[in-house]
DNA sequence: AAAGTGATCTGCT
DNA sequence: GCAGATCACTTTA
């Protein structure tokens, strides 16, 4: 089952913090691989941890564009990560695709990730997921409406602090399917201030 | 715990 | 323009 392009665009046009948990359990297909999302994080313009926080730049242009497009960025000199752009056109919000279960195209995914990578690790981690999907800088700005399908959904959703960031390290905008094996381990950034104790 | 890697951003000139 | 810091990560210890 799939909804119309207009309805799906409207789905992404909402607040990324609302959209993120609803993406869990959804299927995303690209380049011969389909993943079921198990872990995502929300970012938006009023968020110090977001690339969009300091305004639009050449890199973040897609993030400030219309919703439903893919924002791909390159980091740490070797990794790509992928987001689904959210919010209305002109707002800098997106949902980072952090992990998923490869449910179709395992062979294609393993070809990109490496022959001896176990199924569990094919897309468990944002850069791993992007590599499994065959995404790189050329996919920045690609229209994802039609590539995202509602799956069986998530039986439950957990929320907690986002992984690997130094700013806004206690904002609970990471969402995952509790108990799912295809969720990456939480790692606080070594330079982030100690966790708040509430 | 820290290296590896390079684009990007900031804050100077 | 240019230097220095930073970085939504992965891998190997």
UniProtKB/TrEMBL annotation:
Domain of life of the organism encoding this protein: Bacteria
SUPFAM superfamilies for this protein: FMT C-terminal domain-like
MF GO annotations: hydrolase activity, acting on glycosyl bonds
This protein's UniProt keywords: DNA damage, DNA repair, Glycosidase, Hydrolase
Coiled-coil parts of chain: none
UniProt EC number: 3.2.2.-
Family: Belongs to the DNA glycosylase MPG family.
The protein's name in its UniProt record: Putative 3-methyladenine DNA glycosylase
């Amino acid at each position: 089952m799939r909804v119309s392009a207009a309805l799906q665009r409207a789905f992404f046009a909402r607040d990324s913090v609302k959209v993120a948990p609803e993406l869990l359990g959804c299927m995303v297909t690209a380049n011969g691989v389909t993943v079921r999302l198990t872990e995502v994080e929300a970012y938006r313009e009023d968020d110090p941890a977001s690339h969009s926080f300091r305004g639009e730049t050449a890199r973040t242009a897609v993030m400030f564009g219309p919703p439903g497009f893919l924002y791909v960025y390159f980091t740490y000199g070797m990794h790509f990560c992928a987001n689904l752009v959210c919010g209305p056109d002109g707002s800098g919000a997106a949902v980072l695709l952090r992990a998923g279960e490869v449910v179709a195209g395992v062979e294609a995914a393993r070809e990109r990730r490496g022959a001896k990578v176990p199924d569990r690790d094919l897309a468990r981690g944002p850069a791993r997921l992007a590599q499994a999907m065959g995404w790189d800088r050329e996919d920045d700005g690609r229209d994802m409406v039609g590539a995202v399908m509602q799956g069986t959904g998530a039986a439950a959703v957990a929320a907690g602090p986002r992984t690997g960031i130094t700013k806004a390290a206690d904002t609970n905008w990471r969402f995952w399917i509790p108990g799912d094996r295809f969720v990456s381990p939480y790692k606080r950034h070594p330079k982030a201030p100690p966790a708040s104790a509430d």
